[in-house]
């Protein structure tokens, strides 16, 4: 159905018409695709090595290039949405994502695939901030938690589907396409979603003066790159000196970028980063809680995949099936989270965090006792239980961070939040991954994988405990704000 034009509520929000469920489905298709492509490449790395003769460094860039471009462009993508319209940027980003996915599927050497993956990450950075921005700016406050709950469903399912569907596509080898099928699947979905977005999505009011901040965009991208590139390549390269130099250089780069943003604000300009957002207590506390959660989530998905495939000898499809129950429980948790939050308040979020922490503890204990003989049930059940807690917690963290953000700054806030999440996920993979590999080297070959996962699960347990503490701070900030 063609949108007939949105009405405006008393609080200034654009009221979503009767087709809001369809509009939300279009928006969330982008979230699913973005997360799917973030995780799916992990399961096709052996195929890429065999077919394209990709080196370890090339594989790192194929996997991490998307994450780098995505994280580096998120704030700029959110700002462009604020300035030129969320709907317009969403459609352009979705179309670009479909085209870059096609380019990925047609790559004939590692260099072409790296370039296509970088482009894919940039187009994802254009479309994905608009999802949260449209939910924040176009959905009135009462039904917004439910919409964010569905956002959590799409995010979690996309990540888990990267393992499950990715493994299935590789195993099925449809039409002899092999790894190319995981990119080709985005093309028809992206084309249909772009057309439906053009017809259905609302177009909330935007700023009248579309001023850009190219220096801020360069500074933000350089800062993110100075951290993410070493974290992506450092382990496989043996942590050479340049990785440490880059990470140290990120500190003055960040300081210079923030100083420029303050100067631009004081002179009446429109900076890329609105430093006033960080003065909002709920956004500041919510940003930290989201970062801690994604640090745990990214590292857990990474290390558990290593355990299942390298340690327990499962193929890509078998390892993906282990994650399938977690996808179901995550969805149930994300849908139950908003009603539980409305009924029980902070106790529901804290209970979700405790459920996740307890499940990680059970997984660590099971691996410590069973080692390589641990029954899959003792991995599947704790993982599914932790995922139920994740589903309860994540949408509430996102909604809590954005609760006091004004509609005209929704794109910028969504971009900053998504950047923090991706940045934290990369840090989690690097740090907890380093702990995993250190424990693995200290053990004896394949027998060391359960030991390594035990240490990784213990570290993730600590991160989830930190999430619970930050949730408490966020709730207190909301009460005093």
3D structure, described in words:
With 481 residues, the protein is an all-alpha fold. The chain contains 15 helices and two strands. It has helices at 20-52, 56-84, 86-106, 110-138, 144-172, 181-184, 186-200, 214-237, 241-266, 281-311, 316-344, 346-370, 377-402, 410-442, 448-480; strands at 7-8, 14-15. Strands 1-2 form a two-stranded antiparallel ribbon. A hairpin with a 5-residue loop joins β1 and β2 (14-15). It is globular and about 60 Å long.
In short:
This protein is mainly α. Helix content is 80%, strand content 1%.
Derived structural class: mainly alpha
How does the overall form come out from the CA principal axes? globular
CATH C-level: Mainly Alpha
CATH topology: Growth Hormone, Chain: A
Number of helices: 15
Question: Strand count, sense and closure of the main sheet?
Answer: 2 strands, antiparallel
Radius of gyration: 21 Å
Specify the CATH architecture.
Up-down Bundle
Sheet with most strands: strand arrangement? 1-2
The proportion of residues in beta strands is under 5%
- Could you estimate the helical fraction of the residues in percent? over 70%
Q: Which segments are poorly predicted (pLDDT under 50) over 5 or more consecutive residues?
A: 1-19
Quote the distance from N terminus to C terminus: 41 Å
Order of helices and strands: EEHHHHHHHHHHHHHHH
Mean pLDDT: 82
How many separate domains make up the residues?
1
Identify the CATH homologous superfamily: MFS general substrate transporter like domains
Count of DSSP strands: 2
